[in-house]
Amino acid sequence: TCALPIWKTMKYKRTKTADFWVLARRFLHDYMPITRNLSDKSVEAYKQSLKIYLKFLEEQGISNENVTFDSFTRDNIKDYICWLANKTCSAKTINLRLTAIRSFLKYSSEEDFELRGIYTDVCSVKKVKEEKKPIAYLQPEATAAILAVYDIATSKHRRNRMMLIMLYDTGARAQELADMNISSLHLREHNPFVTLIGKGKKSRNVPLLNRTVQHLQIYLKEFHPEMNECPLFYSLLDGKPHRLSTDSISLVLKSAADKARENCDVVPERVHCHIIRKTKAMDLYKNGVPLPFIMQLLGHESMSTTSGFYAFATLEMMSEAMNKAVPSLDKEEKLWKKKDVKKLLYSLD
């Protein structure tokens, strides 16, 4: 049998010093990855947030061995926010750090009711007000220019072209695209779809457009003639297919954007996988697709996450609506040209 980590074999003692470290490790090693089923990256983000708070405490003269739950006072948290701000952290980053601490204290208070007061006090600290910025997304001509960069001259170009088509049409995250396998595709169904594995290893089915299915059928004939189970998008190393990393996918997109920018000046300087995802969602939203459908496509757990990004009018949409609401002046101008109107204007009657 495998030996358990030392901290897991420790008996839970009701001393303030032990309480913090034992619960912190249980939070990061058991609760977050197993109970919450969060990805390794998400767990690491929570761990880094707690580490940064410990660094703050150390600068305040509280060493790690002296950290207890009494170190999580309301005043300490307020000072911590100022400390982060002085390090030029953005409001969004500060709020994410604060959210991680709240999540940990909520878990701890559920494990030990005596900690409920500490959790409540910390929750009373208001988050930093974030400036509402317009969503960054691509204009249709920019999207078309990027998707048209890779031609069919080489097999690598054909793979990259298919990859970018799937990235846009499915609204997938870079990791979700990288994780696609042959078995992820369901092209023979009445309504073809692809199964994506998102955050927390939760799966969702995203419908595929008819034209995308046609592209995939051609792609599969060339890159997966045997239809054996393997990564959908791969590179050959030592004659064997190896799954592309998210960095490789990002590089393919960046190269396409740089090339497209030469002939299309509306392509922004910074194009990344997430902006393609936002573009797909915004294109659907602007075309009247209901938010619950967009939420399902993106794999958001909460409607508030989706509506927070897309349920407001963009400047472009407001401008179009306002122009449509203003009565047209063309008809009035045509009245001046009518013979009977001109006769009335240029007479003394």
Give an overview in words.
This protein has 349 residues and is mainly alpha-helical. It is 57% helix and 6% strand. The protein has 17 helices and 5 strands. It has helices at 6-9, 16-35, 40-59, 74-86, 91-111, 116-123, 140-147, 155-170, 174-178, 210-223, 246-261, 273-286, 291-298, 303-310, 315-325, 330-336, 339-345, and strands at residues 185-186, 193-197, 203-207, 234-237, 240-243. The chain has a 3-stranded antiparallel sheet with strand order 1-2-3, with no helix packed on it. Strand 2 and strand 3 (203-207) form a beta hairpin. 23% of the residues are buried. Residues 4-18 have low confidence and may be disordered.
Order of helices and strands: HHHHHHHHHEEEHEEHHHHHHH
How large is the radius of gyration? 28 Å
Gap from first CA to last CA: 109 Å
Shape: globular
Helix content, binned percent? 55-70%
Q: How many E-type strands? A: 5
Biggest sheet, in brief? Answer: 3 strands, antiparallel
**Global structural class:** mainly alpha
Number of contiguous helices:
17
Portion of residues in beta strands equals 5-15%
Task: Give the rounded overall mean pLDDT.
Answer: 85
Strand line-up in the sheet with most strands: 1-2-3
Gist of the model:
The chain has 349 residues and is mainly alpha-helical. It has helices at residues 6-9, 16-35, 40-59, 74-86, 91-111, 116-123, 140-147, 155-170, 174-178, 210-223, 246-261, 273-286, 291-298, 303-310, 315-325, 330-336, 339-345; strands spanning 185-186, 193-197, 203-207, 234-237, 240-243.
